[in-house]
Design goal:
The protein is an alpha+beta fold. The protein has 3 domains: 19-142, Rossmann fold; 168-386, 4-Layer Sandwich (Phosphatase 2c, domain 1), CATH 3.60.40.10; 407-605, Heat Shock Protein 90, CATH 3.30.565. Helix content is 36%, strand content 23%. It is built from 17 helices and 22 strands. A hairpin with a 2-residue loop joins strand 19 (534-544) and strand 20 (547-556). Helix 7 packs antiparallel against helix 8 (236-250), helix 14 (465-477) packs antiparallel against helix 15 and helix 15 (483-502) crosses helix 17 (575-587). The protein is elongated, with a radius of gyration of 37 Å. Mean pLDDT is 79; it is low at 1-14, 391-432 and 570-578.
């Protein structure tokens, strides 16, 4: 490689350094400075008074100004003030020229908007030094401006992504009331709301350490995990464990996420709640307005321990009209102009001193009146969740899949259905979907997909099976639009096999709201003690041109029940205990128990 000599710098006379404006009432000074500035590579402009200087500045936009302090009419200080205003966001250095050496006058030059000063007579060496320093200041200012605009652009882009990720909540108006007041551009608080495939409402309120961008950086992966796992039907402990694992892997030491996870059951009669480091979650009585229950933090915040997999889940019985009230500590630690904290007692008083119907508006109004114009030291988030029954009046009404394939014939014998379905010409001719034939036949003319698995007690007690099965089914069959109905069918049949087959629970316990909570408490205890038993699951199906069928066969090792004499309830008096099978029957073309009641077969079509 041949080294080329470095080109010599062009002579100062040929370098272009912009325009310089000289303002002085003495013609000699103007002439001398004009010659010096031209020699340094500037295009020199001159004005003999303040009015002419302002007019020239507006016309020529010079990059540097040298102005005499004492002039007839408008003095140099006034000229500097006008020029700074006219420059707006552009930095134009002003160097005052003065024969006065009094320190107070020189200091006044800086206070008046000047960036430096030169004493008369002007020294060429000092002039060069002052101009070079001014150019460095200009370059630094322009660099800061570019970085500032880039930061604003990136901040705006990040805000859009942040807002889209965190505020795109899948709820209807009135299902959850939310207030968020960030202390800076980005909030370290997050509120996520999503419905599972079965219609269960999941709400996660979180508070990262600190606030601002550093605190918000963990919100995006947490939101992604929450929404993805909720949409696939995973339970709160599994979702919390995965968020904890993710945050523990990349958050710096000292940063963590305090959360409260609320799962409001679909029928609105109970909720499951986990508090990991947040203030007490309050349950307000829908009739009296009083605080009926306070649920403190009972688990570590997320991102602290890599081994945290056990989360204390509280099962709470709720009634129609009850409300869950939850807020980050920024709410109770908000200060007024006098530096006084809002405190928990005010929150409780605002909650109880008034009708339950207006509690959210009352809390928001109270907060705003308390803090006034005082800036927040921490992010504030408040959520009020009304407890409403979500079970449709007619079982299966809100869960029904898209219109099924046309029925050729269907009849029931002793509540055991036999169905013959007409498939589209592109799929097959008329095929009898008799469950026995589908289970025994191996020919491709009946099914083109089959999957079978056996699950032992150790896996059943620690894994939420329905989401795992649903993910594989939707991937294999390519029927993602059917996942809500399929999740309901699979989860209800699996729960039936686990609860009644392996755990021996009696569904009649759930005949009342009190029994509903008792049932799930007993289920948790028995599941933890489960050491024997298994479930076999078999799927067969066929899909073509967007239509098809799926056979679901589930067999448990339990003692079963007297399915031959089982009748669905004819009234809503036993709605809690019999809801599952009623929903499945409404969604499927076929539902049949066999053996001692430990085998169930269902056919779902679309």
């Amino acid at each position: 490689m041949t080294l080329q000599p470095t080109p010599a710098a062009p002579p100062a006379e040929t370098r272009t350094r912009g325009r310089a404006l000289v303002v002085d009432d003495e013609s000699t000074t103007r002439l001398i400075l004009r010659g010096l500035l031209q020699k340094e590579g500037f295009t020199a402009l001159t004005a003999s008074n303040g009015e002419s200087a302002i007019e020239l500045f507006e016309q020529e936009s010079p990059s540097i100004v040298l102005v005499d302090v004492i002039m007839p009419g408008m003095n140099g200080f006034e000229v500097a003030g006008h020029i700074k205003k006219m420059a707006g966001g552009r930095f134009v250095p002003i160097i005052f020229l003065t024969a006065i050496t009094d320190e107070n006058t020189l200091a006044e030059c800086i206070r008046a908007g000047g960036d430096d000063f030169l004493t008369k007579p002007v020294s060429l060496i000092l002039l060069r030094a002052k101009i070079t320093a001014a150019e460095r200041m200009t370059h630094l200012y322009e660099t800061i401006q570019r970085q500032h605009h880039q930061l604003l652009f990136e901040q705006q882009l990040a805000r859009q992504v942040y807002a889209k990720t965190l505020k795109d909540n899948n709820v209807q108006p009135g299902e959850v009331f939310i207030l968020q007041r960030p202390a800076s551009v980005f909030s370290g608080d997050l509120i996520l709301v999503e419905k599972s495939p079965s219609g269960t409402l999941h709400v996660l309120l979180g508070d990262f350490t600190g606030h601002g961008l550093a605190a918000a950086i963990g919100a995006l992966p947490a939101a992604d995990i929450f929404r993805s796992m909720t949409s696939h039907g995973y339970s709160p402990p599994e979702i919390l464990a995965e968020i904890n694992r993710k945050l523990r892997g990349f958050l710096p030491t000292g940063m963590f996420l305090a959360v409260a996870f609320i799962r409001l059951h679909q029928d609105g009669k109970a909720l499951t709640l986990c508090n990991c480091g947040l203030p007490e979650v309050l349950i307000q009585d829908g009739q009296t307005g009083s605080i009926r229950q306070k649920i403190p933090s009972q688990s570590l915040p997320l991102g602290i321990s890599a081994r945290q997999n056990a989360f204390k889940m509280n099962l709470v019985e709720v009634n129609e009209g009850d409300q869950v009230v939850i807020a980050t500590d920024g709410f109770t630690e908000a200060k007024n102009a006098a530096g006084e904290f809002l405190g928990s007692q005010r929150l409780h008083d605002w909650l109880e001193n008034g009708p339950p119907q207006g509690v959210f508006e009352r809390l928001v109004t109270g907060l705003e009146a308390f803090i006034g114009d005082t800036s927040l030291d921490d992010d504030v988030t408040l959520a009020v969740i009304p407890c409403r029954g979500r079970l449709p009046a007619t079982v299966g009404e809100a869960l029904a899949p898209p219109p099924p394939l046309p029925l050729v014939g269907s009849h029931f014998t002793n509540n055991r259905p036999r169905c013959h379905l007409l498939l589209l010409d592109t799929l097959a001719p008329i095929i009898s979907l008799d469950p026995k034939k589908l289970m025994d036949a191996a020919g491709a003319e009946v099914c083109d997909w089959e999957w079978e698995t056996r699950l032992g007690s150790s896996l059943i007690k620690k894994t939420d099976l329905a989401p795992v099965l649903l993910r594989n089914l939707t991937d294999f069959l390519g029927v993602h639009e059917q996942r809500h109905a399929l999740f309901t069918v699979i989860s209800e049949l699996l729960n039936n096999a686990v609860d009644h087959g392996l755990l021996g629970l009696d569904s009649h316990i759930k005949d009342s709201p009190e029994g509903f909570v008792q049932y799930f408490e007993e289920r948790t205890r028995r599941l933890a003690d489960l050491n024997t038993g298994h479930i076999r699951i078999r799927f067969r199906g066929r899909v073509e041109s967007g239509h098809g069928w799926l056979l679901i066969h589930i067999e448990d090792s339990g003692t079963g029940f007297d399915h031959a004499h089982w009748e669905p309830p004819k009234t809503g008096s036993n709605l809690y205990g019999m809801r599952g099978l009623q929903v499945v029957r409404g969604l499927c073309k076929h539902l049949q128990f066999e053996g001692c009641g430990n085998i169930v077969q269902a056919i779902y079509t679309w």
